[in-house]
Write a structure and sequence with these properties.
- It is a single chain.
- The protein is an alpha/beta fold.
- Helices cover 41% and strands 20% of the residues.
- The protein has eleven helices and twelve strands.
- Helix 1 packs across helix 9.
- The chain is globular.
- The two termini are 23 Å apart.
- The model has no long low-confidence stretch (mean pLDDT 95).
- It binds 1,4-dihydronicotinamide adenine dinucleotide and magnesium ion (MG).
């Protein structure tokens, strides 16, 4: 049966890196249906609404969403639509694989609560954000991480600040209880501040790392250092329903947007995660091989020390990919 794939480039470099990833999907899966949608800050500036009910409905009726990036200006009046999409589609697990020679880590970040619960307010002389850690939210993310670890090297690291935060002491308590219900895996708890440094210093010692929302956000951006920067890292947002959303870890990069310098690898790898999720692991291998072959052909974007533009890299990548569909 055909799959319905929503293509949502969003803002800034999202518009520059998503087209090539979408084209790659279309080359490997002409049998799927692709539905482009407009959303984000630019859309808000034009229409007054960053995420229409119609677009949200199209997302809810899709099998997967390929998302670019959105600009979220710091403002008390503008809510991040990505947080809203994650909540509306119940995408509770953010999976961020970090891969480089000798390194194979998967960060499992809780995606719906923690410090990004959205429960916040301003008072006269202070602002408050509520950090929510629920039993149900913790159990499902821990179960997800444990199942993943079982399919990998069976080692789980739990990142917390349980020594300071009652909400994290709770997260850890529930995690231990959930882990005790399953067949044994090796698990350790590390304080998140020390963990960020240790992952950078000893990355080969890690397999699956599970943590709360903001800690996972920071840890995965820092871990991008291990594999060449933010332009390289994809992520999957998955949940209990059939919906899922795939996006680069990076944002809309206003500092380089419009200059044809963005690295589209994170977006292409997000498309690879999408294919894997929909059962086409071979397609995902084709995408990664075409990326590697493009680098071997001498085309690297500036963030990797090369001088290829986004367009040059993308064209050569599609050229390399076409070899697999002849
Ligand atoms: P960012 O990820 O957009 O950029 C951080 C740095 O990495 C910049 O110097 C940028 O040029 C560089 N970079 C990022 N992706 C790159 C790529 N593909 N190729 C080459 N260089 C790349 O994060 P920043 O600057 O903190 O946020 C910019 C905007 O993006 C903000 O409005 C923020 O709210 C939003 N954002 C959106 C996200 C999303 O849509 N999922 C995630 C993170 C930030
Ligand atoms: Mg981030």
């Amino acid at each position: 049966m055909t799959k319905r794939i929503v293509i949502a480039p969003g803002d800034g470099i999202g518009q520059e890196v998503t087209p090539v990833a979408a084209q790659a999907l279309e080359i490997l899966h002409p049998d799927w249906t692709y539905i482009p949608v407009v959303l984000g800050y630019e859309c808000y500036q034009k229409t007054g609404n960053p995420l229409s009910d119609n677009v949200l409905q199209i997302m809810k009726e899709s099998d997967a969403i390929l998302f670019g990036a959105i600009t979220t200006p710091p403002s008390k009046d503008y809510e991040s639509i990505l947080l809203r999409i994650r909540k509306e589609l119940n995408l509770y697990a953010n999976i961020r694989p970090i891969q480089a020679p000798g390194i194979d880590i998967t960060i499992v970040r809780e995606n719906t609560e923690g410090l990004y619960s959205g429960i916040e307010w301003r008072e006269k002389d202070r602002a408050c954000t509520v950090r929510v850690v629920s039993e149900a939210g913790t159990r499902r993310i821990i179960r997800h991480a444990v199942e993943l670890a079982k399919r990998r090297r069976r080692h789980l690291t739990i990142g917390t600040k349980a020594n300071v935060l009652a909400s994290d002491a709770y997260f850890y308590e529930i995690a231990l209880d959930e882990i005790s219900k399953t067949e044994p895996i090796v698990h350790t708890m590390k304080y998140i501040d020390a963990l960020v440094l240790d992952v950078i210093q000893h990355p080969t010692q890690y397999d699956v790392i599970v943590t709360t929302n903001m800690f996972g956000d920071i840890l995965s951006d820092a871990a991008a250092y291990l594999c060449g920067g933010l332009g390289m890292l994809p992520s999957a947002n998955i949940g209990s329903s059939q919906h899922s959303l795939f996006e680069p870890v990076h944002g809309s990069a206003p500092d380089i947007a419009g200059t044809n310098r963005a690295n589209p690898v994170a977006a292409i790898r997000s498309a690879a995660l999408l294919m894997q999720h929909l059962g086409d692991s071979q397609g995902a291998v084709y995408l990664e091989t075409a990326i590697q072959n493009t680098w071997k052909a001498g085309l690297k974007t500036q963030d990797l020390g090369g001088n290829a533009s986004t367009t040059e890299f993308s064209n050569e990548f599609l050229n390399q990919l076409s070899v697999f569909v002849q």
